[in-house]
Amino acid sequence: MGFFIRDLHRQIQDLHIEATGKLNSLTVYRGQGMMKNEFEKMKKSKGGLLSLNSFLSTSTDQQVSLSFAHHALENPQVVGILFEMQIDSTVSSTPFAFLGTTSYFSDKEKEVLFSMNTIFRIGTMGKIEDRLWRVTLVLTSDNDQQLKDLTEHIREETSGSTGWHRLGRLMITMSEFSQAEKVYNALLDLSSSDDCQEVSDLYHQLGFIHKENGDLGNALSYYQKALELQEKSSDPSYSSLTTTYINIGEAHREKGDYSTALNFYEKALEIQKKTLPPNHISLATTFNCMGLVHRDNGDHSKALVFYEKTLEIQKNALPANHPSLATTFNCIGAVYDSMGDYINALSFYKRTLEIQQTSLPSNHPSFAATYNNIGAIHDSMGDSWTALGFYKKTLEIELKSLPANHPSLGTTYNNMAMAFEGLEQYQSAVECAERAVDIGLEALGPSNAQVKRYESYLNRISRHV
Fold it and tell me: Residue 138: which of 88, 97, 98 has the closest Cα?
């Protein structure tokens, strides 16, 4: 399959080179269906980037493409889209080819085929008729700065010394943690015990995977193994030490041990201030973590100070739609939420969601957290119906992306129970509260304070049934 893809790409490149100079600009069309929820996301992304990750078949004949869009309407869950794509070969080297008689369909479809990973900027949108829309796309130029910035950050986030390392990083970025764990365990089996840096890096990645899966005990165990190797090294990597300190701090924060967490963050910050410029993006990560500790510990004013430091660095260093900005907006929203300032909280949560919708796949776990936060705001404002809708979105993603006993599922079921209670649907409230208790007992144990709160709530709400 890989050989076929490479060969097709080269053929398109050859045909593109042959046609270079003959036509500098053209308009092509593509008709297709799109699920309603995906189309709603695209409508909110006007002006943003759209990446098409397979070979893209288009036509210079609008009517041919329109017929495909009409055909898609046979599925009632789909919106028909007529993409109108504007191409300027003088500013873009993206390869495409006029197939003409080369195509299986001869010249009937007037086909123009683009190679993989073609990226467009989303332009205007207009309704043609019920469930049928025209969307204008403009092929990005080779000098598109936003695309350059985003590509560079993605490249950095999925870097690695070998293809297997890069695959592991990519699986983590995509939240495919079970696959990432398999990759890193395989690398650990193949590694030499004498290569302290390699082994510590693998321990660190395995620790991160366990933390993301809610297994804080194993996460701390792997982090501690990584730290021991790093501290014994005759030539320690300060960036690796810093990362390990931060992640150990994060695991302790999630366990509720705020003083230990803050101690590790301060160790990381001390190294960073000695080795990095004051506006380095890594400092933003540490400031954000320290803000989290102060927020969780109830010191909202200190939390906002650290989040503002984070945001100042990120705005100067990252593209406007980078996921890290979404994380910071979310954290600021959480502080306002804790302060009872629901209007500001909702504003920041919505800014979080807007970035996520343009930069993450629709089933990414980060959406679950944002939907949960927005639901909680509506719940606090007395709108149980809207809250329940967002909690259900949260649950849908978590059931697909998390282990069945993950603590976050317990939180979501408990939140849904309270929303059902607000709607006086007590039987549904009890069922959700029971699921929260079951998950909490399995994941956290009977002595955990959160589990005790779940049980207390279940006892109270059961009296209504």
Answer: 88
For 384-408, letters b (16+ CB in 10 Å) and e give bebbbbbbebbbebbeebbbeebbb
* Pair 264, 249: CB distance under 8 Å: yes
Averages of pLDDT over runs of 10 residues in the chain (465 residues) are: 62 68 79 88 80 81 92 91 89 77 63 82 91 92 71 58 72 81 86 77 89 90 89 70 90 92 94 91 93 92 95 92 89 92 96 88 84 95 96 93 88 96 96 96 90 94 91
Buried b (16+ CB within 10 A) or exposed e, 324-360: bbbbbbbbbbbbbbeeeebeebbbbbebbbbbbbbbb
Architecture of domain 2-141: Alpha-Beta Complex (3.90)
Annotate 82-102 with DSSP letters as a single string.
EEEEEEETTT----EEE-GGG
In angstroms, the CA 453 to CA 455 distance is 5
Q: To which residue do tokens 């607000």 refer?
A: 422
Using an 8 Å Cβ cutoff, are 318 and 330 in contact? Answer: no
Q: Which two tokens stand for residue 223?
A: 């982090």
- Name the pairing type of β-strands 132-139 and 78-88: parallel
Per the structure block, which two tokens stand in for 210? 């366990």
Task: Tell me how far apart the alpha carbons of residues 70 and 131 are, in angstroms, rounded to a whole number.
Answer: 9
Residue 31 tokens read as: 């008709």
Instruction: Give the residue extent of every domain in the chain.
Output: 2-141, 361-465
Q: How far apart are CA 408 and CA 403, in angstroms?
A: 10
> In the chain, helix, strand, coil percent, each to 5?
65, 10, 25
> How many C-beta neighbours within 10 Å does residue 300 have?
18
Run of H or E residues at 52: strand 49-52
SS3 (DSSP) at 129: strand
Element (H, E) at 342: helix 342-359
* C-alpha 352 chain-centroid distance: 11
Instruction: Output the CA–CA distances (angstroms, integers) from residue 439 to 212, 407, 433, 452, 455, in the order listed.
Output: 17, 7, 10, 12, 11
Annotation: CATH topology of 361-465: 1.25.40
Q: Do the domains at 2-141 and 361-465 have one common CATH topology?
A: no
